[in-house]
């Protein structure tokens, strides 16, 4: 039986924040293999993402708030073994999708471990850690979902969408670190947010998010799908409203770069982005 700390630190709810890339990729697949799409959802959101969260918590042993948890419980050895078992199951299930998909899953797990493992600890390097996260949670995940969910297992995945997926993650990720500067510093970690500073984090986020929307605009307009992009952009407006409102508060007092405000940003951004890409997925049924 899993201990309460193990269940908490796997952070299953955090998978919701990573769901937009899955929905984005699925909404663009020409012909979907529904069974494989469901298996891929299970592999990523029930196994790989929670396992990555658990392993990271096992290595970090956080005593201050972390993504989605205000008061993390102390991790046990059970959490480590559980994360390993989940990874093994994920890889075995991946083989039923395709060898390319399985290779990507193995690469994702390896990158996740290198990010957290004390012997390598990519997360303590602001640029290397940041690039690792946005590459694998963005472009690689988009590739996996698009390839694995396609009926013919195509390798011809739209590069512009892979770039956009990484940029969307890249514009979101530094904000999840903005309240952790002091805790990370005590652990010898310098995140991209700590490197940029409080104000710099918001400026950087605005730039990367603008680039993401620019790439999406170019992609959709070049295919004559202006209405889809406008729908997408409209549904993301609440994200901009909250972002600039929060940025204004931080500009006045950096104490507003708090865990509570970060979680609100996460929730607003995730709900709006998930709804936007889910709308594009549903839109397919009316074409």
Automatic annotation (TrEMBL):
Subcellular location: Membrane
The entry's keywords: Membrane, Transferase, Transmembrane, Transmembrane helix
Transmembrane segment boundaries: 12-29, 35-58, 79-109, 129-148, 155-176, 196-217, 229-251, 263-283
Signal peptide: none
Any GO CC annotation of this UniProt entry: membrane
Primary location recorded for the protein, binned into one broad class: membrane
Molecular function (Gene Ontology), one example: transferase activity, transferring alkyl or aryl (other than methyl) groups
One Pfam family this sequence matches: UbiA
Cell membrane listed as a keyword: no
This protein's record includes keyword Lipid metabolism: no
Membrane-related topology note: Multi-pass membrane protein
Family matches, as InterPro entries: UbiA_prenyltransferase
Record's protein name: Prenyltransferase
Organism: Niastella vici
Taxonomic classification: Bacteria, Pseudomonadati, Bacteroidota, Chitinophagia, Chitinophagales
């Amino acid at each position: 039986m899993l201990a309460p700390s193990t269940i908490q630190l796997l952070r299953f709810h955090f998978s919701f924040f990573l769901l937009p890339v899955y929905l984005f990729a699925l909404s663009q697949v020409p012909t979907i293999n529904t069974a494989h799409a469901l298996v891929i959802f299970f592999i990523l959101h029930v196994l790989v993402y929670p396992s990555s969260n658990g392993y990271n918590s096992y290595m970090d042993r956080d005593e201050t708030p972390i993504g989605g948890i205000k008061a993390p419980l102390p991790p046990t050895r059970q959490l480590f073994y559980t994360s390993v078992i989940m990874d093994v199951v994920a890889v075995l299930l991946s083989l039923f999708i395709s060898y390319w998909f399985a290779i990507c899953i193995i690469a994702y797990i390896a990158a996740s471990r290198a990010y957290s493992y004390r012997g390598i600890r990519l997360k303590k390097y602001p640029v290397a850690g940041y690039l690792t996260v946005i590459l694998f949670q963005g472009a690689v995940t988009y590739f996996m979902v698009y390839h694995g969910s396609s009926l013919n297992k195509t390798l011809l995945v739209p590069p512009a969408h892979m770039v956009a997926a990484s940029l969307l993650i890249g514009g979101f990720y530094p904000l999840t670190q903005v309240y952790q500067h002091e805790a990370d510093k005590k652990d010898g970690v310098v995140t991209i947010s700590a490197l940029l500073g409080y104000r710099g984090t918001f400026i950087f986020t605005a730039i990367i998010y603008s680039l993401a929307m620019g790439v999406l605009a170019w992609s959709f307009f070049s295919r004559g799908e202006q209405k889809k992009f406008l729908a997408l952009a409209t549904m993301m407006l609440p994200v901009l409203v909250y972002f600039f409102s929060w940025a204004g508060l931080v500009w006045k007092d950096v104490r507003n770069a708090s865990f509570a405000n970060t979680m609100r940003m996460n929730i607003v951004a995730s709900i709006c982005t998930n709804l936007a890409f889910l709308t594009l997925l549903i839109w397919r049924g009316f074409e």
